[in-house]
Design a protein that fits this description.
With 413 residues, the chain is α/β, with parallel strands linked by helices. It is built from 13 helices and 14 strands. The strands form three sheets. The chain has a six-stranded parallel sheet with strand order 3-2-1-4-5-6, sandwiched between helices. Strands 9-8-7-10-11-12 form a six-stranded parallel sheet, sandwiched between helices. The chain has a two-stranded antiparallel ribbon with strand order 13-14. It starts with a helix and ends in a 13-residue tail after the last strand.
Length: 413
């Protein structure tokens, strides 16, 4: 199904849902119940990509701070539930791929729709006091049909009449950051940047257990658009320079589809460890957690590393740093300002309309090396050895989780 037909189908579905939700809203008004000032059960819903779910977890921490006695449930796609389980602010993880019923050919698969109906029915039986759509029309639809006492979300991000409390605001270049937008739906407080505090039980891949420090992880891949990718020749140049100048152990991480790229980059710097396509999600989290620095394009692992308290150097092109960047002051984002950017429009993968990706081509390796060298902890760079400031939300079994990237607690083999 081409993009035009998908857009028309989406518009038709939105119109149908608007009519249905208007009827639901009228019925709810007729038997309206006052929202609880202290909800006992809260449902947060966020679908889509890895980084999207990670950026939604700040809302769980703000909800926990505001309603400490509430049971907080977080709904996310099954692929990302291991990540949410590492966030102690969420009492429960509900697995559901809301986008499955909107993507071809699942959109015409009766089994996918039956699964969606079953999930909605199970949610309605729970009778949540509060349901919050953190982003998107699918999450908004789930919340609208949840039967919760109060339903909250951004007015422009779901079909009309989806929410009892539709809030003004939307995602746009220039910010606010994705994490802040999600958290504002439950609280006015600043959400923490480190949101994944349950690191016990993570196990490093065998190839890293004897690696020397400093440890620098490079993540060159991006699944949501080719325009996000930094040229491979730039990666090769930067990795060679960093290995030579800092003595760091370089690690390449990524999905199996990027295995050829990982092998190419690993060959450019002697001693580089190539883990591309060779880690589970839990192993990837372990690698990112013990890294002294993660260098990545705008991708899910970049946000995942920041959420684990690791310093991130993010390389941006088509996506806006203020909205999609790492956010944490201990991290840094680099991009080249050109008239056509940032151009990412939220309507699909990030692709360059001109086919040249100059915003990434013109991001010089020398600039990346200079920024990375200042962030890598080492005896010759004492400023980078300072620990991150405490955020007040990370504890594990009565012990404080190490804030800084150096020294880093060892993980179990």
């Amino acid at each position: 199904m081409n993009r035009r037909l998908r857009r028309l189908a989406g518009q038709a579905l939105t119109a149908v849902l608007a009519v249905a939700f208007a009827g639901i809203a009228l019925a709810r008004w007729a038997r309206r119940r006052a929202p609880r000032t202290q909800p006992r059960s809260v449902l947060l819903v966020r679908f889509d990509l890895m980084g999207d779910v990670v950026n939604g977890l700040g809302a769980a921490w703000d909800a926990r701070a505001r309603w400490p006695e509430a049971r907080i449930s977080f709904m996310a796609p099954p692929a990302w539930t291991p990540i949410v389980r590492r966030c102690s602010a969420a009492d429960e993880v509900l697995a559901f791929d809301g986008g499955a019923v909107t993507h071809w050919p699942q959109a015409v698969n009766p089994a996918a729709w039956w699964r969606a109906v079953a999930v909605i029915r199970s949610i309605r039986r729970r009778r949540f006091d509060l349901a919050v759509s953190l982003y998107g029309g699918i999450a908004g639809t789930v919340v609208a049909l949840s039967g919760a006492r109060e339903r909250v979300g951004y007015r422009t991000e779901a079909p009309p009449f989806s929410f009892d409390r539709p809030l003004p605001g939307r995602r746009r270049n220039g910010g606010p950051h994705e994490s802040l937008l999600a958290a504002r739906l439950v609280s006015d407080a600043q959400p923490p940047w480190r949101t994944l505090d349950r690191t016990a039980g993570l196990s490093l891949p065998a190839a890293l257990r004897a690696a020397s420090r400093p440890l620098v992880v490079a993540h060159p891949g991006a699944t949501h658009g080719r325009a996000k990718r930094w040229p491979s020749e730039h990666w090769r140049s930067a990795l060679r320079a960093l290995a030579a100048e800092t003595g760091a152990t370089m690690v390449i991480a990524g999905v199996r589809a990027d295995a050829a790229l990982g092998a190419e980059l690993a060959a450019s710097a002697p001693g580089t460890i190539d883990l591309t396509g060779r880690t589970t999600l839990d192993e990837l989290m372990a690698v990112l957690h013990v890294a002294d620095l993660v260098i990545s394009v705008d991708s899910g692992p970049a946000h995942l590393a920041r959420a684990m308290g690791t310093r991130v150097l993010a390389l941006h092109g088509p996506t806006d740093v203020h909205l999609h960047g790492p956010g944490d002051p201990s991290c840094q984002a680099l991009r080249v300002e050109i008239p056509c950017g940032p151009c990412y429009s939220f309507r699909g993968p990030a692709e360059c309309a001109f086919g040249d990706r100059l915003c990434m081509e013109w991001l010089a390796p020398e600039r990346v090396v200079q920024a990375a060298r200042a962030m890598i902890p080492s005896p010759w760079n004492p400023a980078a050895m300072e620990e991150h400031p405490a955020e007040g939300n990370a504890s594990r079994e009565g012990e404080s989780v190490p804030r800084g990237p150096f020294p880093r607690a060892r993980l179990s083999p």
